[in-house]
Structures are given as C-alpha cells and as structure tokens.
Specification:
- By secondary structure, the chain is mostly helical.
- The protein has a single domain (16-190, 204-395), classed as MFS general substrate transporter like domains (Growth Hormone, Chain: A).
- Helix content is 81%, strand content 0%.
- The protein is built from 16 helices and no strands.
- The radius of gyration is 21 Å and the shape is globular.
- The N and C termini lie far apart (43 Å).
C-alpha cells in the first residue's frame, strides 16, 4: 500500500489536502442538490410541473451512476489530482450553462454534465483518505471528506435557496460556477501528486460485486438512498404544507436539517469504524421512522421541525457508515469499490427522485413521503435479515470447527 505521499506534521491533525477534498464534495453535492431548494421557482420559471422539475435531480443522479464506474477506467493512468481538477472545471462550465439555459432542455443538458462530475469526483475522492493520513486517522479523515455532503445541506442548498428567492434561480447556478473554479484551484494547490496505484479495469469493478459483504452493503444503500431521495427531493413542498411556514421559514429549516446532517456525519464517522454494519442499520431505522411520521405531522409545525432534525441527523450518517462497511468488505480494491459505491449511490438518487416525482404527481407530496419511508423500512429489514443470516453462518462454522475429529 502506498503511504509515501502522506503529508507530514501532527499525526492527529487533518491535513489541508483532506480539507480540499471536502470542499470538492461540498461543491458537487451542493450543485447536484441545488434544485431541491429551487424546485418551486424552477418549475414556475420554466413552466413545468413539480414532478417534471424533479428531473433536474433525477438526470444528474442517473448520469453519475454511469460515470462513477466508467471514469476511473477511462482515466486509468491519470494522476488523480489532475482528474479532480478537470472535473471541477467541467462542473463550473455545467453550472454556467444551467444559469444561461433558455429552456428546460438546455437546463437538463447542463445537469447531465453535473452528473458526470459528481460520479467522477466521488469515485476518485471517496477512497483517498488512506493515501493522505496515517492509518489511525483514516476514519476521521473519511468523515471529513464525506462532511462535504452534510455541509452542502447546511450552507450550500440553503444559500442557493436564499439566493434564488432574492435574485432568481439563475444567479444561484452562476454562483456555483464561480465556486467550482475556486475549488479547482484549491485542489491544484493543496493536493499532493496522486499517481494511480494501478489501472482500474471494468472487470475489477464488476468483480467487487461478487464479494458477499459488498452485495449486502450495496443492497441496504440502494433501498435506503432511493427512499431518502424519493422523500427529500420534495421536502420543500412538504414543509410548505405546515401552516405558517413561508419561503423564508423553509429556507431556515433546510439549514437546520443540514446542521443536523453535519452532526450525524461525524457521529457516524466516530461509530462506523467500530461497527459499520450496526451503525448503518441504526441509521436506517431512525430515518425510516422520521420520514413516515412526517406525513401525519405535516399539520403541526413543531412536530414537522423535530422530525426534520431527526431525519437530517440520521441521513448524515449514511454515507460515512456505508463507506466504512464497504472498505472493510473490500480492503484491497478501494478505488474499484468506491467507484461501484458512487455509481449505485447516484443511481439511487436518480431512482428516488424519479419515483418520488411520480408519487407526488399522483398522490400529492404525502405520496412521496410514504414511498420514501417504506423503502427505508425495507432497507432496515434487509440489513437486519442479513445480519441474522451472517450470525447463523458464523455459528455453524464455529460449531463445525469445534467438533472432534472422527
């Protein structure tokens, strides 16, 4: 394992290179999720329904699902610092195209480019902590990299929502274009050279799926993330159902949700190294309960706010718990496993937004929440069942090895 490019200094400190990766994940996640906070104004400005406007979340997720496993293969021998810088530059161009889009079709083209960048950044960045920090700091560094996701909910999406309310949704995308250029410069300045550790081949990515523990975590993540985004994509209109919650209040609540997500990310980062499977199952159960209870709580602002905080806290722990479980399941195939994880994660985002949109159009916003909660329940059940089956296999193995020889 290549440890030679780790940065010197306090072994407990998080180096600037890890913080730079966190800004990259913050930038791509903010861009990917920005339409969630702008859904109403986007639909009004482009004359599309709520469900159709949700395609601005569905499409980049779908493209990212394809890009994540393919980009490491296409850039098999390129320095990973160079790859990340190029992806952030393309992200800037995609946001500029979205800001200038004369119609919904051009906006979707920009969002497709966002998907390429999102899948590529996650495929490369998710497994880099092991190359940048001492072994004992890997869990904390991974949590910092994934914190970009939660901080995007705290700062990125609420700031974009506020900007959209004040000066229009086009300026929100323009601001993200500028931010992506700044992040590209930070990556170029703060990351050390990151030569590839070996060409990633498509067969290697596919081969990771044959590992039983990998299949287990991917199944739980697929159900959980699909359920989350079926509901979360429509969280703004869901909150607007509560009496007395206007546009300003909803923006503030998205900020609260994101703050809870940051806390959940670091709580998950602390718990996951000791038991990532158990951590993800707890997260699944809490997320399922908070989403399902949000339906009857829609008429009560205090209950809706409390459940939103619990929802954010739970979802904040999903990525870091799942990534730790996956790295433990495939320790020798980090980038291939990360690429597969990023692909599946983004496919789940796309599918969740699509299914949630269909449910919202047919059964109103409550339908999206019911669907999301039901899928999260299935994730919890699947994870619990696989845990029981694994315990049974281990018990049989132990009894078999303790039998006296014939």
């Amino acid at each position: 394992m290549d440890r030679t490019i780790r940065q010197a200094g306090d072994r407990r400190a998080i180096p600037p290179s890890v913080l730079a990766l966190a800004t990259a994940t913050f930038c791509v996640v903010t861009t990917e999720m920005l339409p969630v906070g702008l859904l109403t104004s986007l639909g009004r400005g482009l004359r599309t329904s709520v469900g159709t406007t949700g395609l601005t979340v569905t499409l980049p997720g779908l493209v990212a699902a394809l890009a994540a496993p393919l980009l490491p293969v296409a850039a098999r021998r390129a320095d990973r610092r160079t790859v990340l810088c190029v992806l952030l530059a393309v992200l800037a161009a995609a946001n500029a195209l979205s800001a200038l889009a004369p119609g919904f079709g051009v906006l979707l083209l920009g969002r497709a480019l966002v998907g390429v960048c999102t899948g590529g950044v996650w495929a490369v960045a998710a497994g880099l902590a092991v190359r940048l920090v001492p072994e004992e700091s890997e869990g904390r560094a991974t949590a910092v990299i994934f914190s970009g996701t939660a901080v995007a909910s705290v700062l990125g999406v609420p700031a974009g929502t506020l900007m959209g309310a004040l000066v229009g949704w086009r300026w929100a995308f323009a601001a993200m274009a500028l931010l992506a250029l700044v992040v590209a410069a930070l990556l170029a300045a703060l990351l050390p050279p990151l030569p590839t550790e070996g060409a990633v081949r498509l067969g290697e990515v596919a081969g990771v799926i044959r590992i039983p523990a990998v299949r287990a975590v991917l199944l739980v993540v697929a159900l959980l993330v699909t359920g989350h985004f079926a509901a979360y994509t429509y969280v703004r209109p869901a909150l607007e159902r509560a009496p007395g919650l206007g546009a300003g209040a909803v923006g503030a609540l998205l900020l609260v949700y994101g703050a809870a997500g940051v806390a959940g990310n670091f709580l998950g980062g602390a718990a996951a190294p000791r038991g990532p499977r158990r951590a993800l199952l707890v997260v699944s159960a809490v997320l399922a309960g908070s989403v399902l209870l949000s339906v009857p709580a829609g008429g009560s602002p205090p209950a809706a706010v409390a459940l939103l905080v619990v929802w954010g806290l739970a979802y904040g722990g999903v990525s870091v718990s799942a990534q730790n479980w996956l790295m433990a399941a495939a320790p020798g195939r980090r980038e291939a496993a990360s690429a597969l994880f990023a692909g599946l994660f983004n496919a789940a985002i796309a599918l969740g937004a699509l299914l949630g949109g269909r449910a919202a159009d047919r059964f109103q916003v409550a339908g999206a929440l019911w669907l999301g909660g039901a899928l999260a329940v299935l994730a919890s059940a699947a994870g619990a069942l696989m845990t029981v089956m694994r315990a049974g296999r281990e018990s049989r193995t132990t009894r078999g090895t303790s039998r006296p020889a014939d």
